[in-house]
Amino acid sequence: MPRSQRNDNFIDKTFTIVADILLQIIPMASGEKEAFTYYRDGMSAQSEGEYAEALQNYYEAMRLEIDPYDRSYILYNIGLIHTSNGEHTKALEYYFQALERNPSLPQALNNTALICHDRGEQAIRQGDPEIAEAWFDQAAEYWKQAIALAPSNYIEAQNWLKITGRFGE
Q1: Using only C-alpha atoms, what is the Rg of the chain?
Q2: Which of the residues 30, 72, 107, 165 could staple to 101 if both were Cys, CB 3.0 to 4.6 A apart?
Q3: What PROSITE patterns does the record point to (predicted)?
Q4: Phi (first) and psi of residue 104, to 5 degrees
């Protein structure tokens, strides 16, 4: 039974019903509908922490989906799973792929910045302030791009940029 038919959560059930109605009334090719179904099931599995199942659904959605914009969100969600699993290098690869297809994806820019910032913190702990500064500068660039796209978001990042003198650079 597909995940979309076994949701126990009211919000998931509601989303599934609305998505099913939209799939019926919006004209799209059957491959696009099937890709969306896999994407939806991937999001459901991901929200429940079932990352292996979510990845299977996302990979299947990627196989079927041809629209670059839609693919960017699938790639972004794959990146989220790798971030959650602590696989930051792999996550960055997926965030970069998402941004190649959709440069206006502030959440991918933010998550990339977070990973860069984390690597800067690691460099400080390892006693390498020059490497840390390079990572922090990279984080600042990604955060500035994210903030330009979503000015009311990422308040903590905006404060960090101001405190560290990187906001106006």
Answers
A1: 18
A2: 72
A3: TPR (PS50005), TPR_REGION (PS50293)
A4: -100, 45
